[in-house]
Amino acid sequence: MSGPRVLLRQLRETMAEPLASQDRLDKIVALIATNMHTDVCSFYVLRDDNALELFATFGLKRESVHMTTLRVGEGLVGLIAAQAEALSLEDAPSHPAFAYRPETGEDPFRAFLGVPVLRAGQTLGVLVVQNKDSRLYGEDETEALLTTATILAEMIATSEFDTLIKPGQDIDLRRPRMFQGQSFTEGIALGKVVLHDPRVVVTNFIAEDTEQESRRLDAALATMRVSIDDMLSHGDMGAGTEHRDILETYRMFANDRGWVDRLEEAIANGLTAEAAVERVQNDTRARMLRSTDPYIRDRLHDFDDLANRLLRVLTGDGTAPTHRELPENAILVARNMGPAELLEYDRTRLRAIVLEEGGSTAHVAIVARSLGLVAVGQAQNIVSICENGDDIIVDGPAGTVHLRPTRELEQTYADKVRVTAKRRAHYLALKDKPSVTRDGVAITLLHNSGLVADLPMLRDTGAEGVGLFRTELQFMIASRLPKVQEQVALYREAIRLSEGKPIVFRLLDVGGDKVIPYLRAAAEENPAMGFRSLRLALDRPGLLRTQVRALLTAADGGPMKILVPMVTETWEFVETKRVIRLELERLIRAGGKPPSELKVGAMIEVPSLLFELDHVLPECDFVSIGSNDLIMFLNAADRANNRVSKTYDPIALPRLRALRHIVDMAGRYGVPITMCGELAGRTVEALALMAIGMTRLSMSPPAVGPIKEMVMGMELKPIRTAVAAALGEGQHGVGIRELLVDLATRQGLVI
Ligand code: PEP
Ligand code: MG
User: Are residues 149 and 261 in the same domain?
Assistant: First the structure.
């Protein structure tokens, strides 16, 4: 039996003994030294003040335990922690980073081998062995020490050494962390982390029977490979899609000999199969995390997913996170997720979501807003740093996330929440006041909605109705296509809950990032510009007719407004109107009550339509600008890809001119126009829209209060004049945003 395996067996026995923490740790370092035939073995733990504290030693002076510290980057131990890499030296004192600590009596030791103690790629400490005589430790010895370090990492993470921590200090693993991300919503939430895709927790580290572990690994790898192959051969997955690319990458990794060899080596050293996966993944993460190349970092995600998949097979842990019991005040943390995935959670317990990726106009962000959740995106690397159940604060407006906050910070935020509650009360007091500017311009404020659950909010905001009801959200949360009667019931309920305020129902707008699992669609290279929305509806008129029938029926003889998404050319709108007319005639023939007033409008969100407004406007009872898609297509910058979408200010000259053109043309044809993209809910942007003549703004419900307050406090005419001049002058680089902020500030507006 090889050395490391004997060592791990002895470690397991030591861990089972009833020993005090320090005694256990002393015994562990002694065992390592004896087993590896070294004169010294020392174990350093990384504290929250960035110091590596000597927690135990065999061979150095005992008095230095809990006394000697090194900063990260200082000395050889600090270097290992900083680089998260093993270091093996024949003659340590001659290394430029060597730092002499007289209290440890370290000088006579020449040979040095140190490894980082890693968990999820994070350094938790350093483990070192030394010998008096100069020698070079072999790769086997490095591997053995790394394997032992995996066990120590777990002991740190499971609070094994907590009694050894001095008062007022803590280990780095529990250090409070701040992430500066991007604001997706207003609001502040305090709660507990729920990982959308939680890491599988390995509890059994040391193998009883190495051969058996090796067989378990082989079987799990085979199962995983088969499941990846199965998914790849699934009929509806075309070539070149993102999903397919990911799976291809998985398959490549899953068959990667180097990876499998390293897993097998870790098992040969005495770890269980799952501990081996964790151990190898730790190294991979630590290496990849140091890379600044976005491609490598993306691959890291793939590797993480793959390792997690393998762990699930090994541990049999297949519970979908959405079906787990959520704590009260759950705050969902994910690398990214689709809107449908978010909708699967128990909404009564969710307070916020935090994503590593995403953009503020991605549908998951929109859905989060419509559910009244606080949301922050672009919180780099948070998934690997947080654990289920960690305390977390999400500051929506600042776009910051505080993980494991200090008591003081928690107190500050609790106070802030009280202030926010006061602000909410203040907005609530505005709800029945007319939304009119000081110089008498009436601004109609409306909700963007999509779930029946958010309609009662109309009462709290005093909005005049729903400017955009995204019917697809209901389709996304259903497990199968809702039948006509189910749709009727849903739209009826929406109408009932709106208590007489008008709702604009938008026809199904699926595709792009709005995936409906049961509506099988062929995979596409660019789904946002693919077979989506109206294109799909006109191609599958059965679906369109069913929805129109349901809407006309649900009106129950009252008024009905239908909005047609993604109109690219006028004929598509005309064709949709024909389908609606046929359904209306059908309803009347069947003896049903037709709507008292039926209005059909087009969404202006495809740039091409801007050049045939003369054709489309006369056909429309009303129009609505979808700024999310329109701006994405104008800029050729994916709304869900933050790397590009935030580069171009949506209210800079070219975009604002395009928007003004639409408003002017609608005015010329006397067609009512609403803005229903996310722009309308942000103060400066809303100001820009009002400045170009837009008077109907539809937004997420929490935005109504702040926008209304601004409307009621402002004089619009001077702002209109100044913006018109700026747009007219057309100087390159005229900062519309700066101009608006300046004008608003001078009027004392809060923006
Ligand atoms: C838009 O594109 O601005 C819009 C309102 O529609 P959605 O965000 O649902 O695509
Ligand atoms: Mg759109």
Answer: no
240: domain CATH number? 1.10.274.10
Tell me: do 226 and 193 sit in the same domain: no
The verdict on residue 751 lying in a domain is no
Q: What are phi and psi of 444, to 5 degrees?
A: -85, 120
The answer to whether residues 556 and 704 belong to one domain is: yes
91 alpha carbon to ligand 2 midpoint, in Å?
Answer: 65
Strands 622-625 and 673-675: parallel
Cβ contact 208:8 at 8 Å: no
For ion ligand 2, residues whose CB falls within 5 Å: 605, 626, 629
> Could you say which of 398, 421, 444 is where a domain stops?
421
Task: Find out whether the beta carbon of 676 lies less than 6 Å from any atom of ligand 1.
Answer: yes
Last residue of a domain, one of 399, 421, 443: 421
The pair of structure tokens assigned to 126 is 């350093």
**What is the structure's pLDDT at 244?**
66
Say if residue 544 is in the same domain as residue 466: yes
Question: With the CA atoms of 654, 657, 659 and 665 taken in that order, what torsion angle do they form, in degrees rounded to the nearest 10?
Answer: -140
CA-wise closest residue to 344 among 330, 356, 358, 357: 330
Structure tokens at 255: 């068959």
User: What is the value of pTM for the model shown?
Assistant: 0.71
- Burial class of residue 749 in the structure, from the number of CB atoms within 10 Å of its CB (0-12 exposed, 13-18 middle, 19+ buried): buried
The three-state DSSP-derived secondary structure of 361-423 is CCHHHHHHHHCCCEEEECCCCHHHHCCCCCEEEEECCCCEEEECCCHHHHHHHHHHHHHHHHH
User: Which of 603, 689, 694, 696, when mutated, tests ligand 1's pocket best, judged by the most ligand atoms within 8 Å of its CB?
Assistant: 603
Which residue's CA is the closest to the ligand 1 atom numbered 6? 626
Domain that holds residue 224: 210-315
Same domain, 435 and 570: yes
Dihedral-angle region of residue 30 (phi above 0 means left; psi in -120 to 50 means alpha; beta otherwise): alpha
Q: List the structure tokens of 420.
A: 């926010």
Q: Are residues 562 and 469 in the same domain?
A: yes
The Cα 630–Cα 568 span in angstroms is 11
Residues in the chain where the model's pLDDT stays below 50: 1, 235-240
**Angstrom distance (rounded) from CA 649 to CA 646:** 7
Determine which helix (DSSP H) or strand (DSSP E) holds 601, and give its type and residue range. strand 598-604
- C-alpha 81 – ligand 2 centre gap (Å): 48
Name the domain count of the chain: 4
Q: What torsion, rounded to 10 degrees, do the Cα atoms 27, 32, 37, 43 define?
A: -90
CA–CA distance from 422 to each of 195, 416, 701 (Å)? Answer: 31, 10, 17
Give yes or no for residue 116 CB within 6 A of ligand 1.
Answer: no
- With tokens 């050889």, the residue in question is 76
Q: What pLDDT, in 10s, does the model give residues 632-684?
A: 999 999 888 878 888 899 999 999 999 999 999 999 999 999 999 999 999 99
Q: Residues 234, 277: one domain?
A: yes
Reading the block at residue 322, the tokens are 């959405």
Is residue 578 classed exposed, middle or buried when 0-12, 13-18 and 19+ CB atoms within 10 A define those classes?
A: exposed
Q: In terms of domains, do 350 and 447 share one?
A: no
Contact between residue 609 and residue 662 where contact means Cβ atoms under 8 Å apart: no
Average pLDDT, the chain: 90
* pLDDT at 333 (0 to 100): 96
- Give the chain's radius of gyration (CA, Å): 31
Measured distance CA(244)–CA(232) in Å, rounded: 7
As given in the structure block, the two tokens for residue 277 are 């996966």
| Per-residue pLDDT, 487 | 95
